[in-house]
Amino acid sequence: MSDEQQQLAPFEIRGEQDPDWSLTNDQLIYMAVIHRVVRLAYEIDDMARLDRIEASTMYVALFADMPWDEAYDRYETALEGGVTFHAYNRERQLVEIDPDQAWFWTPEWQEKEREADGDIAAGRGDFVAWFTDGQE
Question: How far apart are CA 73 and CA 120, in angstroms?
Fold first, then answer.
């Protein structure tokens, strides 16, 4: 397993998939991590972005020669069938996460979150005051 693939590891997947139309856990996690980008590409009809994803080293390593349309259809079918993604929060509780937010739970992003928390705790940096409601 490559270093890139190991970065996908902190997620837990729950639910059953159709055995004839399934993805591996690593494939599901990859699709969840790029979910927002893919959704936006479809919304603005940016097929070039989807072509770049399909040609990427990570996609090829995970999906080999599976066409993008098939991979995405399998992913959507898994979500519609009840597959859910889970990650550990700061209190070490396993919580269900929205695929739109999967990027936040990657080890790289979580490391940056810990760095920011440390900076805030140490009083380093200029921070904007916390918002108390959606009106601010």
Answer: 42
Give the model confidence (pLDDT) of 3-56 as tens digits: 443 344 467 888 888 888 999 988 998 998 888 899 999 999 999 999 999 999
Listed residue (72, 40, 36) closest to 54, CA to CA: 72
DSSP 8-class letter at 66: -
Residue 64 DSSP class: T
Prediction pTM value: 0.70
- Do 95 and 87 touch, CB atoms closer than 8 A? yes
28 burial via Cβ count (<10 Å: 0-12, 13-18, 19+): buried
Please name every residue paired with 96 in a beta bridge, in sequence order, or none if there are none: 86
Q: What is the pLDDT of residues 25-36, one digit of tens each?
A: 889 989 988 888
Asked if residues 66 and 75 have their Cβ atoms less than 8 Å apart, the reply is: no
